[in-house]
Design a protein that fits this description.
With 467 residues, the chain is α+β, with helices and mostly antiparallel strands. 28% of the residues lie in helices and 27% in strands.
Length: 467
């Protein structure tokens, strides 16, 4: 295979465990500035595709994978928020980007946040099997290439930041998302994705979050729209196939660029959708794909953006909290067996849930070798004004956790984004762990860890609000 033409950077990568902490920055009473920049991160060579526990080598590009970076600056405070069209965020990317932005621009590492849209038509970044012998360092090279592109985007956004006005709010979209976990008439554990019109379905095991949270950023001088942030909770698994694609957010962007012009940058952050997808199992609506979903969502956003409430007194502030939660435990024998079976995870030689369990045990064993029995989780809250805040969480978070955070938030509009800063799998609720099924198996945390993260996010929101 041809060598990968990815940019390389040298870094030191360390996991550090710390007790629960809070880091914060305050903004002076000066004008808020913002900038946005975009860099393409589509792999330049074929790579294994993410998402389906099978070996899938990419065959081309349907639409480009992008890294979009928003930078907010006010007084001495800077906040950097990047969203990538990838299935997850390799910790290597977060580490390198933070180190370089601190070195080059003196931005505090704790104020740099990197999230993923969870596109299932991007490259596999956290392989569940051993890497192919012919490309032993391809994943690291690609991760470093992505980090370099984000650094360039953040630098551009930082340097081009201009005085802006903000408007924020929410609308409702109930046509697109469905809870994918179900109680069955036959009893037993909850089933995920039991199939359309399955006669054994009793009822959904949880809610959805129909709220579409929106932020519109305009140039303070000429009132021209510059960029927007949209957050909605639905799995980015609506494209399929073997070509790289950013999934439905690509079509959201197309709608908003048609409204505001080609220079407008639509940033899409995925909400807490660990148990939410696009399949209506009742069969009342056909299964929609990315073009229809993204266009419908984009039209919903476009209809409301100009009506959002203006943020009269921007007051940028960032709070980060780190907590430690227990991981699942397995015996030495179970760990040894999982290591022996690692190469079967991406095959069909074993039952699906057995392969999921093997992958999780190996992930836990690898993390435990570095960090011990506890998993460090990082939660951020960014205050934009007294009514608007952004929360970022690691992992694929169950919708109940996101809804609880919004309910307890002291802010009128609270954006809750998942898949931030680390490659952590599912973050279920204690209730979901009792009910079982795929998502609870595919989780490295012990029951209760999701609620601990939820409480940390609520505490961060209250602190950043000034309570």
């Amino acid at each position: 295979m041809r060598s990968l033409l990815f940019g390389m950077m040298t870094c030191t990568f360390l996991y550090v465990l710390a007790p629960a902490t809070a880091m914060q920055c305050f903004a002076n009473d000066t004008a808020l500035k913002a900038g946005v920049a975009v860099r393409e991160i589509t792999p330049q060579e074929p790579m294994g595709m993410a998402g389906y526990y099978s070996e899938r080598l990419s065959t081309g590009t349907l639409d480009p994978l992008l890294a979009k970076t928003m930078v907010f600056r006010q007084g001495e405070t800077t906040a950097v928020l990047t969203v990538m069209d990838l299935i997850t965020v390799p910790p290597l990317v977060t580490t390198v980007v933070r180190e370089q932005l601190h070195k080059n621009l003196n931005i505090p590492p704790e104020n740099v946040i990197i999230t993923a849209t969870h596109s299932h038509t991007g490259p596999m970044l956290d392989r569940l099997t051993r890497q192919r012998p012919e490309e032993p360092d391809a994943l690291q090279k690609y991760s470093l290439y992505v980090a370099d592109q984000i650094i360039k985007a953040a630098t551009d956004a930082y340097q081009n930041a201009t005085p802006v006005t903000l408007a924020a709010g929410a609308t409702s979209e109930t046509r697109l998302s469905f809870n994918r976990r179900f109680f069955m008439k036959s009893g037993g554990p909850v089933r995920f994705n039991p199939g359309v019109k399955n006669p054994d379905i009793l009822k959904a095991a949880g809610p959805i979050d129909p709220e579409v949270d929106m932020l519109l950023v305009r140039n303070a001088g000429n009132n021209a729209p510059l960029t927007s942030l949209t957050v909605f909770a639905i799995h980015a698994d609506t494209t399929g196939g073997m070509q790289f694609s950013g999934d439905y957010s690509y079509y959201v962007s197309n709608v908003l660029r048609k409204k505001y012009g080609d220079a407008f940058v639509s940033v899409f952050g995925i909400g807490t959708c660990g148990d939410i997808n696009h399949i209506d199992t009742s069969g009342e609506t056909a299964i929609r794909k990315a073009p229809e979903i993204g266009t419908m969502l984009g039209e919903t956003v476009a209809a409301k953006l100009d009506e959002l409430k203006k943020c009269e007194k921007p007051s940028l502030r960032v709070v980060r909290k780190t907590i430690q939660v227990p991981m699942k435990t397995f015996t030495d024998e179970e760990i040894a067996e999982a290591e022996q079976l690692r190469d079967k995870v991406m095959t069909e030689e074993l039952p699906f849930l057995d392969r999921v369990q093997i992958g999780v045990i190996n992930q836990i064993a690898e993390r435990r070798n570095v960090t011990g029995d506890l998993l460090t989780l990082e939660v951020h809250a960014i205050r934009l004004d007294e009514n608007t805040a952004i929360v970022t969480l690691p992992g694929e978070v169950f919708v109940d956790i996101g809804l609880a955070i919004k309910k307890a938030s002291p802010f009128e509009t609270t954006f809750v984004m998942e898949l931030a800063n680390d490659a952590i799998p599912y973050m279920p609720t204690e209730k979901a762990f009792r009910e079982g099924s795929y998502e609870t198996i595919n989780s490295v945390i012990a029951p209760g860890g999701g609620e601990m993260m939820q409480n940390a996010a609520i505490a961060a929101l209250k602190e950043v609000h000034g309570q």
